[in-house]
Protein backbone atom coordinates (compact mmCIF):
# COMPACT_ATOMS: atom_id res chain seq x y z
CA UNK A 1 0.00 0.00 0.00
CA UNK A 2 1.46 3.37 -0.92
CA UNK A 3 0.68 6.75 0.63
CA UNK A 4 -1.78 7.70 -2.09
CA UNK A 5 -4.06 4.77 -1.44
CA UNK A 6 -7.17 4.91 0.76
CA UNK A 7 -9.02 1.71 1.60
CA UNK A 8 -12.67 1.81 2.59
CA UNK A 9 -14.83 -0.93 4.08
CA UNK A 10 -18.53 -0.54 4.83
CA UNK A 11 -20.20 -2.15 7.82
CA UNK A 12 -20.14 -2.05 11.60
CA UNK A 13 -18.24 -5.17 12.61
CA UNK A 14 -14.48 -4.56 12.97
CA UNK A 15 -13.83 -8.29 13.51
CA UNK A 16 -15.00 -8.87 9.95
CA UNK A 17 -13.84 -5.67 8.26
CA UNK A 18 -10.44 -5.02 9.79
CA UNK A 19 -8.65 -8.25 8.73
CA UNK A 20 -9.89 -7.68 5.19
CA UNK A 21 -8.64 -4.09 5.18
CA UNK A 22 -5.24 -4.93 6.63
CA UNK A 23 -4.80 -7.79 4.17
CA UNK A 24 -5.76 -5.43 1.31
CA UNK A 25 -3.16 -2.98 2.65
CA UNK A 26 -0.63 -5.84 2.58
CA UNK A 27 0.36 -4.72 6.06
CA UNK A 28 2.19 -7.98 6.96
CA UNK A 29 4.78 -7.23 4.26
CA UNK A 30 5.76 -3.78 5.59
CA UNK A 31 4.88 -3.72 9.28
CA UNK A 32 8.04 -3.79 11.43
CA UNK A 33 7.72 -6.52 14.12
CA UNK A 34 10.75 -5.60 16.21
CA UNK A 35 9.68 -2.12 17.33
CA UNK A 36 7.19 -0.80 19.87
CA UNK A 37 3.82 -0.39 18.17
CA UNK A 38 1.63 2.34 19.63
CA UNK A 39 -2.14 2.48 19.25
CA UNK A 40 -3.57 5.99 19.66
CA UNK A 41 -7.38 5.97 19.91
CA UNK A 42 -9.49 9.06 20.51
CA UNK A 43 -10.71 8.92 24.12
CA UNK A 44 -11.31 12.63 24.53
CA UNK A 45 -13.97 11.97 27.19
CA UNK A 46 -15.22 8.98 29.15
CA UNK A 47 -18.21 8.34 26.90
CA UNK A 48 -18.94 5.19 24.92
CA UNK A 49 -18.31 5.07 21.19
CA UNK A 50 -22.07 4.90 20.57
CA UNK A 51 -22.24 8.61 21.49
CA UNK A 52 -19.96 9.46 18.57
CA UNK A 53 -17.16 10.73 20.82
CA UNK A 54 -14.64 7.91 21.14
CA UNK A 55 -12.95 5.11 19.24
CA UNK A 56 -14.92 1.86 19.25
CA UNK A 57 -13.12 -0.61 21.57
CA UNK A 58 -14.13 -3.44 19.24
CA UNK A 59 -11.88 -1.88 16.59
CA UNK A 60 -8.90 -1.68 18.95
CA UNK A 61 -9.54 -5.21 20.19
CA UNK A 62 -9.71 -6.57 16.63
CA UNK A 63 -6.49 -4.74 15.76
CA UNK A 64 -4.60 -6.08 18.78
CA UNK A 65 -5.79 -9.63 18.08
CA UNK A 66 -4.62 -9.29 14.47
CA UNK A 67 -1.22 -7.84 15.47
CA UNK A 68 -0.66 -10.53 18.08
CA UNK A 69 -1.48 -13.25 15.53
CA UNK A 70 1.19 -11.69 13.32
CA UNK A 71 3.75 -12.00 16.11
CA UNK A 72 3.84 -8.39 17.32
CA UNK A 73 4.58 -8.50 21.05
CA UNK A 74 5.45 -4.94 22.10
CA UNK A 75 2.12 -3.12 21.89
CA UNK A 76 0.89 -0.15 23.94
CA UNK A 77 -2.27 1.96 23.94
CA UNK A 78 -1.56 5.67 24.46
CA UNK A 79 -3.90 8.53 25.21
CA UNK A 80 -4.19 11.79 27.10
CA UNK A 81 -7.86 12.78 27.35
CA UNK A 82 -8.96 16.40 27.19
CA UNK A 83 -8.31 18.84 30.01
CA UNK A 84 -11.50 18.12 31.92
CA UNK A 85 -11.21 14.34 31.82
CA UNK A 86 -9.04 11.81 33.66
CA UNK A 87 -7.54 9.40 31.14
CA UNK A 88 -7.84 6.32 33.42
CA UNK A 89 -11.57 7.04 33.71
CA UNK A 90 -11.84 7.21 29.91
CA UNK A 91 -9.90 3.94 29.57
CA UNK A 92 -12.29 2.31 32.05
CA UNK A 93 -15.60 3.73 30.81
CA UNK A 94 -14.76 3.19 27.13
CA UNK A 95 -13.93 -0.51 27.58
CA UNK A 96 -10.15 -0.32 27.22
CA UNK A 97 -9.26 -1.76 30.63
CA UNK A 98 -10.80 -5.06 29.59
CA UNK A 99 -8.81 -5.10 26.37
CA UNK A 100 -5.60 -4.31 28.25
CA UNK A 101 -6.25 -7.18 30.65
CA UNK A 102 -7.22 -9.65 27.95
CA UNK A 103 -4.11 -9.03 25.83
CA UNK A 104 -1.71 -7.83 28.52
CA UNK A 105 -1.22 -4.52 26.70
CA UNK A 106 -0.18 -1.49 28.81
CA UNK A 107 -2.45 1.54 28.91
CA UNK A 108 -0.30 4.68 28.96
CA UNK A 109 -1.80 7.87 30.36
CA UNK A 110 0.18 10.52 28.50
CA UNK A 111 -0.97 13.21 30.94
CA UNK A 112 1.61 11.81 33.37
CA UNK A 113 4.38 11.15 30.87
CA UNK A 114 7.70 13.00 30.80
CA UNK A 115 7.87 15.58 28.03
CA UNK A 116 10.46 16.88 25.56
CA UNK A 117 10.69 20.42 24.31
CA UNK A 118 10.90 20.20 20.53
CA UNK A 119 11.56 22.95 18.02
CA UNK A 120 9.99 22.66 14.59
CA UNK A 121 8.99 25.27 12.04
CA UNK A 122 9.84 28.10 14.47
CA UNK A 123 7.54 26.71 17.16
CA UNK A 124 8.61 25.19 20.48
CA UNK A 125 6.22 22.41 21.52
CA UNK A 126 6.11 20.22 24.62
CA UNK A 127 5.52 16.65 23.47
CA UNK A 128 5.04 13.48 25.54
CA UNK A 129 8.20 11.40 25.44
CA UNK A 130 6.57 8.00 25.05
CA UNK A 131 4.65 9.22 22.00
CA UNK A 132 7.95 10.33 20.45
CA UNK A 133 9.57 6.97 21.21
CA UNK A 134 7.00 4.79 19.46
CA UNK A 135 8.51 2.79 16.58
CA UNK A 136 5.28 2.45 14.59
CA UNK A 137 2.25 4.60 15.40
CA UNK A 138 -1.24 3.47 14.47
CA UNK A 139 -3.60 6.43 14.72
CA UNK A 140 -7.23 5.41 15.41
CA UNK A 141 -9.34 8.59 15.20
CA UNK A 142 -13.10 9.02 15.01
CA UNK A 143 -14.80 10.75 12.08
CA UNK A 144 -16.49 13.69 13.80
CA UNK A 145 -17.11 17.40 13.85
CA UNK A 146 -15.32 19.81 16.18
CA UNK A 147 -16.71 23.00 17.67
CA UNK A 148 -13.56 25.04 16.95
CA UNK A 149 -11.62 23.41 14.09
CA UNK A 150 -14.88 22.20 12.46
CA UNK A 151 -13.67 18.58 12.17
CA UNK A 152 -11.30 16.26 13.97
CA UNK A 153 -9.75 13.10 12.60
CA UNK A 154 -6.17 11.81 12.23
CA UNK A 155 -4.12 15.03 12.46
CA UNK A 156 -5.95 16.50 15.41
CA UNK A 157 -6.06 13.17 17.26
CA UNK A 158 -2.35 13.62 18.07
CA UNK A 159 -3.28 16.44 20.44
CA UNK A 160 -3.64 13.63 22.98
CA UNK A 161 0.18 13.29 22.78
CA UNK A 162 0.92 16.60 24.53
CA UNK A 163 0.55 17.50 28.22
CA UNK A 164 -2.46 19.42 29.52
CA UNK A 165 -0.59 22.74 29.81
CA UNK A 166 0.37 22.48 26.16
CA UNK A 167 -3.23 21.66 25.20
CA UNK A 168 -4.23 24.96 26.79
CA UNK A 169 -1.44 26.80 24.97
CA UNK A 170 -2.52 25.28 21.62
CA UNK A 171 -5.76 27.24 21.95
CA UNK A 172 -3.89 30.50 22.47
CA UNK A 173 -1.88 29.66 19.34
CA UNK A 174 -5.05 29.24 17.29
CA UNK A 175 -4.98 25.40 17.16
CA UNK A 176 -4.41 24.98 13.42
CA UNK A 177 -0.70 25.73 13.14
CA UNK A 178 0.39 23.87 16.30
CA UNK A 179 -1.67 20.84 15.23
CA UNK A 180 0.13 20.82 11.87
CA UNK A 181 3.56 21.27 13.50
CA UNK A 182 2.83 18.54 16.08
CA UNK A 183 2.34 16.12 13.19
CA UNK A 184 5.92 16.77 12.07
CA UNK A 185 7.15 15.76 15.53
CA UNK A 186 4.96 12.71 16.10
CA UNK A 187 4.65 10.78 12.88
CA UNK A 188 1.65 8.61 12.12
CA UNK A 189 2.58 5.42 10.24
CA UNK A 190 -0.91 4.07 9.68
CA UNK A 191 -4.39 5.56 10.12
CA UNK A 192 -7.48 3.47 10.76
CA UNK A 193 -10.49 5.78 10.99
CA UNK A 194 -13.39 4.62 13.10
CA UNK A 195 -16.24 5.84 10.92
CA UNK A 196 -18.80 3.45 12.37
CA UNK A 197 -20.40 6.13 14.52
CA UNK A 198 -19.08 9.69 14.35
CA UNK A 199 -20.55 12.95 15.47
CA UNK A 200 -22.38 15.55 13.44
CA UNK A 201 -21.52 18.65 15.42
CA UNK A 202 -19.30 18.12 18.44
CA UNK A 203 -16.08 16.34 19.43
CA UNK A 204 -17.54 15.14 22.73
CA UNK A 205 -20.40 13.29 21.05
CA UNK A 206 -24.12 13.73 21.62
CA UNK A 207 -25.31 13.91 18.02
CA UNK A 208 -24.06 10.56 16.74
CA UNK A 209 -24.24 9.75 13.05
CA UNK A 210 -23.85 6.23 11.77
CA UNK A 211 -21.51 6.19 8.79
CA UNK A 212 -20.77 2.44 9.05
CA UNK A 213 -17.30 2.46 7.57
CA UNK A 214 -13.61 2.05 8.32
CA UNK A 215 -11.00 3.96 6.34
CA UNK A 216 -7.33 2.95 6.17
CA UNK A 217 -4.48 5.08 4.83
CA UNK A 218 -0.78 5.79 5.42
CA UNK A 219 -0.92 9.56 4.89
CA UNK A 220 -2.81 11.34 7.71
CA UNK A 221 -3.19 14.50 5.61
CA UNK A 222 -4.78 12.64 2.72
CA UNK A 223 -7.00 10.70 5.12
CA UNK A 224 -8.17 13.95 6.73
CA UNK A 225 -8.75 15.61 3.35
CA UNK A 226 -10.93 12.67 2.33
CA UNK A 227 -12.80 12.60 5.65
CA UNK A 228 -13.42 16.35 5.32
CA UNK A 229 -15.19 15.67 2.01
CA UNK A 230 -17.27 12.96 3.71
CA UNK A 231 -18.39 15.56 6.21
CA UNK A 232 -19.24 18.12 3.55
CA UNK A 233 -16.24 20.42 3.91
CA UNK A 234 -14.72 21.98 0.82
CA UNK A 235 -10.94 22.08 0.24
CA UNK A 236 -9.55 24.94 2.31
CA UNK A 237 -12.29 24.79 4.97
CA UNK A 238 -9.99 23.12 7.53
CA UNK A 239 -6.77 25.18 7.73
CA UNK A 240 -4.70 22.60 9.66
CA UNK A 241 -5.02 20.11 6.79
CA UNK A 242 -3.46 22.57 4.34
CA UNK A 243 -0.82 23.68 6.85
CA UNK A 244 0.20 20.06 7.47
CA UNK A 245 0.55 19.58 3.71
CA UNK A 246 2.73 22.72 3.49
CA UNK A 247 4.95 21.36 6.27
CA UNK A 248 5.48 18.11 4.37
CA UNK A 249 3.37 15.81 6.56
CA UNK A 250 1.49 14.53 3.52
CA UNK A 251 -0.69 15.47 0.58
CA UNK A 252 -4.00 17.34 0.77
CA UNK A 253 -4.67 16.76 -2.94
CA UNK A 254 -7.60 14.38 -3.32
CA UNK A 255 -6.89 14.18 -7.04
CA UNK A 256 -3.88 11.97 -6.22
CA UNK A 257 -5.87 9.69 -3.91
CA UNK A 258 -6.66 6.20 -5.14
CA UNK A 259 -9.78 4.97 -3.36
CA UNK A 260 -10.23 1.24 -3.06
CA UNK A 261 -13.57 0.04 -1.74
CA UNK A 262 -13.35 -3.54 -0.48
CA UNK A 263 -17.10 -4.19 -0.15
CA UNK A 264 -20.47 -2.61 -0.89
CA UNK A 265 -22.56 -0.56 1.54
CA UNK A 266 -25.48 -2.48 3.00
CA UNK A 267 -28.91 -1.57 4.31
CA UNK A 268 -28.84 -0.90 8.05
CA UNK A 269 -32.10 -1.00 9.97
CA UNK A 270 -30.65 1.29 12.65
CA UNK A 271 -29.74 4.06 10.19
CA UNK A 272 -32.82 6.20 10.75
CA UNK A 273 -33.10 5.79 14.49
CA UNK A 274 -29.45 6.07 15.53
CA UNK A 275 -29.18 9.85 15.45
CA UNK A 276 -31.05 12.44 17.49
CA UNK A 277 -30.40 14.99 14.74
CA UNK A 278 -33.79 15.36 13.02
CA UNK A 279 -34.12 15.08 9.26
CA UNK A 280 -36.59 17.27 7.31
CA UNK A 281 -39.98 15.60 7.07
CA UNK A 282 -39.67 15.39 3.30
CA UNK A 283 -36.53 13.26 3.36
CA UNK A 284 -37.72 9.77 2.45
CA UNK A 285 -35.37 6.89 3.21
CA UNK A 286 -36.47 3.47 2.00
CA UNK A 287 -33.97 0.72 2.82
CA UNK A 288 -31.18 3.29 2.96
CA UNK A 289 -27.63 2.31 3.88
CA UNK A 290 -26.10 4.22 6.78
CA UNK A 291 -23.34 5.21 4.36
CA UNK A 292 -25.81 7.19 2.22
CA UNK A 293 -27.93 8.51 5.05
CA UNK A 294 -24.86 9.60 7.03
CA UNK A 295 -23.58 11.55 4.00
CA UNK A 296 -26.96 13.25 3.66
CA UNK A 297 -27.02 14.20 7.35
CA UNK A 298 -23.58 15.82 7.09
CA UNK A 299 -24.58 17.62 3.88
CA UNK A 300 -27.79 19.01 5.42
CA UNK A 301 -25.84 20.09 8.52
CA UNK A 302 -23.33 22.04 6.39
CA UNK A 303 -26.18 23.63 4.42
CA UNK A 304 -27.98 24.56 7.62
CA UNK A 305 -24.79 26.33 8.75
CA UNK A 306 -25.22 28.44 5.58
CA UNK A 307 -28.77 29.25 6.70
CA UNK A 308 -30.44 26.85 4.28
CA UNK A 309 -33.09 24.34 5.26
CA UNK A 310 -35.06 22.26 2.78
CA UNK A 311 -38.50 23.81 2.31
CA UNK A 312 -41.32 21.72 3.84
CA UNK A 313 -43.39 22.06 0.65
CA UNK A 314 -40.49 21.16 -1.66
CA UNK A 315 -40.32 17.88 -3.54
CA UNK A 316 -38.84 15.15 -1.34
CA UNK A 317 -35.21 14.10 -1.15
CA UNK A 318 -35.23 10.32 -1.55
CA UNK A 319 -32.59 7.70 -0.98
CA UNK A 320 -32.27 4.00 -0.39
CA UNK A 321 -32.37 0.66 -2.11
CA UNK A 322 -36.16 0.69 -1.99
CA UNK A 323 -36.09 3.23 -4.82
CA UNK A 324 -34.22 1.00 -7.24
CA UNK A 325 -36.05 0.76 -10.55
CA UNK A 326 -38.72 3.28 -9.43
CA UNK A 327 -38.62 6.33 -11.70
CA UNK A 328 -40.37 9.30 -10.14
CA UNK A 329 -40.20 13.05 -9.66
CA UNK A 330 -38.18 14.59 -6.86
CA UNK A 331 -34.55 14.51 -5.83
CA UNK A 332 -32.81 11.15 -5.70
CA UNK A 333 -29.54 10.78 -3.78
CA UNK A 334 -27.29 7.82 -4.59
CA UNK A 335 -27.04 5.18 -7.29
CA UNK A 336 -30.28 3.51 -6.17
CA UNK A 337 -32.32 6.50 -7.33
CA UNK A 338 -31.05 6.44 -10.92
CA UNK A 339 -34.64 6.67 -12.23
CA UNK A 340 -35.36 10.05 -10.61
CA UNK A 341 -35.94 13.25 -12.53
CA UNK A 342 -33.11 14.84 -10.55
CA UNK A 343 -30.52 12.28 -9.60
CA UNK A 344 -27.12 12.33 -7.90
CA UNK A 345 -25.04 9.21 -8.68
CA UNK A 346 -22.58 7.57 -6.28
CA UNK A 347 -22.69 4.61 -3.94
CA UNK A 348 -22.53 6.30 -1.54
CA UNK A 349 -22.14 9.90 -2.74
CA UNK A 350 -19.87 12.22 -0.76
CA UNK A 351 -21.48 14.89 1.42
CA UNK A 352 -19.68 17.51 -0.70
CA UNK A 353 -21.39 16.09 -3.81
CA UNK A 354 -24.79 16.13 -2.09
CA UNK A 355 -24.25 19.75 -1.08
CA UNK A 356 -23.53 20.78 -4.67
CA UNK A 357 -26.53 18.77 -5.89
CA UNK A 358 -28.91 20.35 -3.39
CA UNK A 359 -27.41 23.82 -3.44
CA UNK A 360 -28.20 24.28 -7.11
CA UNK A 361 -31.50 22.48 -7.68
CA UNK A 362 -33.23 23.17 -11.01
CA UNK A 363 -36.07 24.86 -9.15
CA UNK A 364 -36.10 26.90 -5.95
CA UNK A 365 -36.28 24.54 -2.97
CA UNK A 366 -34.79 26.52 -0.06
S1 LIG B 1 -26.67 4.31 -3.32
FE1 LIG B 1 -28.02 2.70 -2.55
S2 LIG B 1 -26.67 0.90 -2.19
FE2 LIG B 1 -25.36 2.74 -2.43
S3 LIG B 1 -25.05 3.47 -0.31
FE3 LIG B 1 -26.82 4.57 -1.12
S4 LIG B 1 -28.61 3.36 -0.48
FE4 LIG B 1 -26.81 2.06 -0.26
TrEMBL record:
Give the matching InterPro entries. Answer: DUF362
- Domain DUF362, by residue range, is 37-228
Against Pfam families, the record matches this protein to: DUF362 (PF04015)
Designated name of the protein: Iron-sulfur cluster-binding protein
Q: What is the lineage of its organism?
A: Bacteria, Candidatus Ozemobacteria, Candidatus Ozemobacterales, Candidatus Ozemobacteraceae, Candidatus Ozemobacter
Amino acid sequence: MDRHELLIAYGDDPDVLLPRLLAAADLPSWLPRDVRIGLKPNLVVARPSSTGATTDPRLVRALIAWLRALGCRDLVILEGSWLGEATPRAFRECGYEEIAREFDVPLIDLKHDATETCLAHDLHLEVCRQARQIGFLINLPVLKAHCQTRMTCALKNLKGCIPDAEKRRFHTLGLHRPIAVLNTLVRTDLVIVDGIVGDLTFEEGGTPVRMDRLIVGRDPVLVDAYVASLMGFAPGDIPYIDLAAELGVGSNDLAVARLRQINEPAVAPHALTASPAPLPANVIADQACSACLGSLRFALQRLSEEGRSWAPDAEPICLGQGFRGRPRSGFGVGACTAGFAHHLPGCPPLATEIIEFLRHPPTKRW
